[in-house]
Design a protein that fits this description.
Layout (H helix, E strand, L loop, with lengths): L1 H4 L4 H13 L6 H26 L5 H28 L6 H9 L5 H12 L5 H29 L12 E5 L7 E7 L17 E7 L2 E3 L12 E7 L5 H6 L7 H6 L3 E3 L5 H8 L5 H4 L3 H8 L9 E4 L2 E8 L5 E7 L15 H32 L13
Helix pairs in contact: 3-6, 4-5, 4-7, 6-7
């Protein structure tokens, strides 16, 4: 209401308020997230139900063909071009740009905007709304059902990092920036195999077979135990890894992360000596982890890959600060993903233009060199014979 009173956008005001509150340090954030998640799903159900009441299915046949053609045009031409133009400066890989261009159109925003002409009493307001409604349905059917296959086709699906994890976060009043976490020990997890809990975590209670015991009296934790631990509110991900079971790794996922582990602290010069990937002198002075981070533009993420000549390095894990703590090495670089002939980045466009100019100038320079060579090889004209004396 306040935004509307001063002539602003209510939708933008709500979005900014949610952005600020979502990034603020507030209490009971876990409970609030669960509540907001449930309310958002309920609101979406109610919203689509109400928006569906504005549609007039009896009028759909008259505009079905133009609406479907318009939807296909937006999906395959208009949105990809708009996304590509917006993402040109960011040097994103072409498969990622292609995926972003495909994931769009469907949603409530399009229908909400289509209501505006209808509420404004425009002459063709009903036709505009029905057209937008059909376009959203076409997008949901075509784009929504093909998101998974397209992601696999473009090589954008990453294997799971952790297996099953049963965790409950309980925020207590006056806990001085500490949280109480309840973990259920999973079968095959590191703590079930005897891994120690970090000293900064304070186990307070263990439930086993319906009985509550002190952690100090429990001995080794077993699968099925429920452990209550006090931890700082910004605890590392190490605790989740300790209580999670091993992720089920398919053979394809094992190949995905490489057959051998590489210590990120090793010198990159050792890689150069063993595999000759063609590193520069400056790169050979770095550690392997720093080399991979540099090749990735200074920021490494889980499952990122760097091709170094005959080998490929895969980021197996990073810590909370983004530092690489696990690397894999593959002698068989992954097969290239589906080639996307469009969505060139600014760097690729510059490279293509430079290559075109070099190739365009090369024939001219070659012709000039050949002409100069012909001039040198051409025999000198014979001197004219002196006139005979009469």
């Amino acid at each position: 209401d306040e935004a509307g009173a001063i002539g602003g956008s209510g939708f933008l005001a709500v979005y900014i308020a949610g952005l600020i509150s979502g990034n603020s340090d507030i209490r009971a954030v876990t409970i609030l997230k669960r509540f907001q998640d449930g309310m958002s799903w309920l609101a979406q159900i109610i919203m689509f139900l109400i928006l569906g009441l504005f549609a007039t299915p009896s009028q759909f046949p008259a505009i079905m063909v133009p609406a479907v053609l318009l939807g296909l045009f937006l999906m395959f031409i208009a949105r990809p071009i708009a996304v590509w133009l917006c993402l040109i400066p960011f040097r994103l890989p072409r498969p990622e740009v292609a995926f972003v261009s495909w994931v769009g159109l469907r949603g409530a925003v399009s229908i909400l905007l289509a209501i505006t002409p209808l509420l404004g009493g425009l002459e063709n307001g009903r036709v505009i709304f029905n057209t937008a409604f059909i376009i959203v349905l076409v997008s949901l059917v075509i784009q929504g059902w093909t998101v998974g296959p397209l992601a696999r086709r473009l090589g954008l699906i990453v294997p799971a990092r952790l297996g099953p994890l049963d965790k409950v976060e309980l925020e207590l009043p006056g806990s001085a920036h500490h949280e109480l976490l309840a973990y259920r020990v999973a079968h095959g997890s590191p703590v079930a195999r005897g891994e120690r809990i970090p000293r900064w975590a304070r186990p307070s209670l263990v439930l086993r077979d319906g009985r509550s015991m002190r952690f100090q009296d429990m001995g080794r934790l077993a699968a099925g135990d429920q452990v209550y631990i006090f931890v700082p509110d910004r605890y590392p991900r190490l605790l989740d890894k300790l209580f999670a079971s091993r992720a089920v790794v398919d053979p394809e996922d094992a190949d995905f992360f490489g057959a051998f582990a590489v210590d990120p602290a090793r010198s990159a010069a050792e890689l150069e000596a063993a595999y000759t990937p063609g590193l520069t002198e400056a790169e050979q002075k770095l550690t392997v982890g720093a080399l991979v981070t540099a090749r990735l533009g200074g920021h490494a993420e889980y499952a990122d890959r760097v091709l170094l000549g005959p080998i490929e390095l895969i980021v197996r894990d990073v810590d909370d600060k983004g530092k690489i703590i696990g690397l894999g090495l593959s002698f068989e670089p992954t097969a290239p993903v589906a080639r996307v002939p469009v969505f060139l980045s600014a760097g690729e466009i510059g490279d293509r233009l430079s290559a075109f100019i070099r190739n365009w100038r090369k024939p001219t320079e070659t012709q000039e060199a050949e002409a100069r060579a012909d001039e040198k090889q051409a025999p000198e004209p014979a001197p004219e014979k002196a006139a005979t004396e009469s």
